[in-house]
Write a structure and sequence with these properties.
Largest sheet: 7 strands, antiparallel
CATH superfamily of the largest domain: Immunoglobulins
Strand content: 35-45%
CATH architecture of the largest domain: Sandwich
Order of helices and strands: HHEEEEEEEEEEEEE
Distance between the termini: 83 Å
Number of strands: 13
Structural class: alpha+beta
Number of helices: 2
Amino acid sequence: MNLPVLTLLIVVPLLLYFSMVWYFFPAFYSSQSDRSLGLPIITQAGFDVSSASSDNPLSFSITAFNQGQTTDIQIVSVSFPNLSGDISKEEIDPARGYVKVKDHNFTQSPLFLASGDTVGKEYSGGADTTAAKYPSIEFFSRPWKAKVGYSATLEISANSDGRFLVLVKAISLPHFDKSSHYPQKGFKDYQQEFVAIYPIFIK
C-alpha cells in the first residue's frame, strides 16, 4: 500500500471524528430542548435583619428556581468575601468566622470551598479554573427539573462589626448562554461570573 493511500486512510477518519466531536455533537446536544433551556432565577435571598449583631450568628436564606425546562445540574453558590480560612469548622479559628448549613433541600450535599481552592471560571463547567479568593458554599441538585426550586438557610458567624457581604449566583449546566445563569448582568466576582450582592451592617 503506497503512502498517499495510507495517509488518506488515517487522515480522513480523524477529520471525521474531530468534526463530529467539535461541531455535530455540541450542536445536536444544544438542540435538545429538555436539556438546554434551564432558566435559573434566585427568587428569594436575604438576611434576617433582627440577627444583625456580632454577638449573634446571622441568618441568611436563599431559594433558586428553574423557570425553564429540565437541565442536568443546578449550582447555587453563596460566597463570603469578609471571611477567610475554613468556614465549615468553628473550632479551628472562630475569630475568622464560620458558616453552618441549618437546612437545605438540594438533592446533593453542599460543598464548602476555602480560599485557594481550585474553582471553575467564566461558566466553563470547570474547563477553565482559577484559585478561590474567599470561601464559599456550593449547593447542587441533579437533575434540576422544570419549574422546581430549592432552598437553604445558613447561620453565619461574622465576628466583626461593619459592612458584611454575601454574594450569590445560580447556574444551570450545561451552560449555553446568559439564560443559563443568574444574574445575567451587573457585578462580576473573581471567577468572572455575575453575582447578586447582599449587604448587611453589623454592629
